[in-house]
Amino acid sequence: MLDIKEYDHGLTFKVFVQPRASKNEIKGLHGDAVKIRITAPPVDGAANKTCLKFLAKCLGVPGSNLEVASGKSSRTKHIRVKMDKGVDFHKELDRIRKLLTTYKKR
Predict the structure, then answer these.
(1) CA 104 to chain centre
(2) How far is CA 75 from CA 23, 45, 83, in A?
(3) Which one, out of 6, 19, 50, 95, has a CA that is 20 to 30 A from the CA of 81?
(4) Measured between alpha carbons, how far is 53 from 57 in angstroms, rounded to an integer?
(5) Could you give the residue ranges of the DSSP H alpha helices within the chain?
(6) How does residue 106 score in pLDDT terms, banded at 50, 70 and 90?
(7) Residue 34: phi, psi to the nearest 5?
(8) What domains appear along the chain, each with residue ranges and CATH number?
């Protein structure tokens, strides 16, 4: 089951990144993390940048609202999503959880 944690201005969740894939896609769950395949190699932060850009598109949030909170040089990373003021936090949490666990290729 995906573990999403709340913090004062947003939430964090774990991803497991597989670099150098043939295409960018969410492959489902990998333990308590979202498995993400990305095309970028793990060189000079390219994999992290591609991962964040892809997640922003999937979640429908601005890229500036996402950051790698920990695991910058690891396949397992914690992603922090900053929430804008005025957003219904619990509604947004449910929306993101649903998107990450049921995302299909578009």
Answers:
(1) 15
(2) 17, 12, 25
(3) 19
(4) 6
(5) 46-59, 89-102
(6) very low
(7) -85, 125
(8) 4-101 (3.30.1200.10)
What's the CA angle centered on 78, arms 28 and 21, to 5 degrees?
45
Closest by CA to 21, choosing from 48, 5, 40, 44, is: 40
Cβ–Cβ under 8 Å, residues 34 and 50? no
pTM of the predicted structure, to 2 decimals:
0.88
Q: At what angle do helices 46-59 and 89-102 cross, to 10 degrees?
A: 110
50-14-57 Cα angle (round to 5): 35
pLDDT tens digits, one per residue of 52-85: 999 999 999 999 999 999 999 999 999 999 987 7
Q: How far apart are CA 26 and CA 7, in angstroms?
A: 24
In the numeric block, which tokens belong to residue 80? 């922090």
**With b meaning 16 or more CB within 10 Å and e meaning fewer, what string describes 53-71?**
ebbbebbebeeebbbbbeb
